[in-house]
Structure formats: structure tokens, C-alpha cells
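Team,

Forwarding the record for the chain on the shared tracking sheet. I've put the sequence and predicted structure together so nobody has to dig through attachments.
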Amino acid sequence: MSYSAFRTGYAPRLAVIACGLCLVAGTAAGDQRVNEMLALQQSATADDRQAQAEVDALADETQEAVSEYRVRLQELDRIRRYNDNLQRTIDDQEREKASLNRQINEFGDLEQGIVPLLMDMIEDLDRFISLDVPFLPEVRSSMLTQMRDVMDRSDVSIAEKYRRVMGAYQMEAALGRNMESYPGELEIGGVNRQVEFLRVGRVLLAYQTPDREETGYWDTRTQEWRPLDDSYRSPITTGIRMARRLAPPDILTLPIAAPEGGGS
């Protein structure tokens, strides 16, 4: 084969081979570019995921912060309401304290007026008892002594002192409306004798010895004991039994002096 014929037949073959090499080289370059693009996409996806995770974490923190803020607002509101109520309570206590101070000052003024009045009432009661029918002298004298002691005690309130004095007056008033009998001693003819006393209100105070041999009464006019004749022995005995609830109520003939009346 001649050189010309060789070149003519071999040249097309070289061109085909060259094209094939170019295609192979182009395909390799394209694959590398695709791989690079895929790598970039994967990197971007990973970055997106990380960014989303950070966004989610930040959203969670924000939600927690908002919830915490709401809780703190509720606590602040409760504290504010508590403080408002506490302030109203303190203001009310201050008003009450001021009122108590005024009452104490007023009570001090009132006490200065009541104490002398009570002491005068005790002295008036003492004079009344000394002029009254002399029944239960020891009991009534002891009552007066106790009231005077109470008036001097600092641990007894003014209200209790007032109650004691008024109680004594009420008791004395009740004695004028009832009837009683009690044992005691009485000097008769210069000798102390055991007797049974009969008191009918304040109009009669009589006595009778246990053997019923002697009977007498307190004469309110002469302020002394006087004997009674035998006509009063049985009525006085019946009166003593009535006072002891040993006999039913009955009409008695008693030595009661008629009140003195002024002439016209």
C-alpha cells in the first residue's frame, strides 16, 4: 500500500478516535461538576438543617421566656394585691389604735368621775345599814369591808368595782321584800342567849329563845330590843316556821309600829 493510500485511509480513523477521546474527557468533567453540585446541595441542606435547629431552639427559648414572663406577671399581680390588702389592714389597725387611744383617754376621765361616786355610794350604804334594822350585822359589815378593799385594788377593773357596789345595793333592796329566819346570839338581861331571829322585810325584826320562853323585837323608835308579851309567842313561832318553809303562808299578828303621821 502506498503512503498516499495509507494517509487517505488512516486519517478518518484518527478523527473518530479524537472525537471519542473528547467525549470521554467531556463526560468526566461533567460528572465532576455534578458531584460538586451535589456536594454543595448536601452542604446547603446540612446548613439549612442546622439553621432550622437553631431557629427551633431559639423559638423554644422564646416560648419559655414568654411563659416565665407571664408567670412573673401573675406573681407580681398577686404580690401587688396582697400589698394593697395589707396596707388596708394596716390603715384599719391604725384607725382602731387611734380609736382605742381616744377611748382610753375618755375612760380615764370617766373613771375619775365614777370612782368617787362609787366610794360615796359605799359610805351611803354604810350609813343606811347603821340606821337600819340590825339584822345580819356581821354579814353586812363584811360586805362593806370587802367593797372597800376592792376599790383599793389595782387588779380589779372599774366595771367589776361598779358591779360589786350595784350588787350590794340590789341585795339590800331585795331584803326589804322577803322574809327569813336565822340563828344568832343576843344579850338578854345581861346574858348572851342563843335565839332564832325572824325578819319580815324591814318592818319587823323579832327573836325567840329555843325554849320559846322569851320573845321580843327591835323597837325602831327607841332603837333597842324590847320583850313581847305571851300573845306574840305563837305568831312569832309560826312566822319562824313560815320563813323556814316549814309552814304554809298565813296571816300573822305581829308587833309592827304604825308610821308616825303629821297632824294638821
